[in-house]
Amino acid sequence: MGEVLPLQRKVERPESPEPLWRELVGAELRRERQAREERLTDVAERAGVSTQYLSEVERGLKDPSSEILSAVAGALDLTVRELSTRVASAGTSATGSYGALCLAA
After folding, report:
1. Which residues form the HTH cro/C1-type domain (predicted)?
2. In a 3-state reduction of DSSP, which class is residue 102?
3. pLDDT, tens digit (0-9, with 9 covering 90-100), for 32-63
């Protein structure tokens, strides 16, 4: 008979979770607002949303509708297309080698 070898379990280190689309969008909105040296209240007022809601969007806690996203981007003189392009470009460099981004449903 052969020798019995113990089963060795491969210990996998958990990788950092892939960022959600809403987190990347929120970070880009915040980056743009801060670059323009604007307050949350100013942007929220122009976009027609509450300051608290905009804060939650920027922190990646809320997944805004396309209408809200368009309003907030517009308040920052951006189009949704420009915002999406920035997020896609920043996502590959800022988040590592994820390649594809995880889109929130």
Report:
1. 29-83
2. strand
3. 999 999 999 999 999 999 999 999 999 999 99
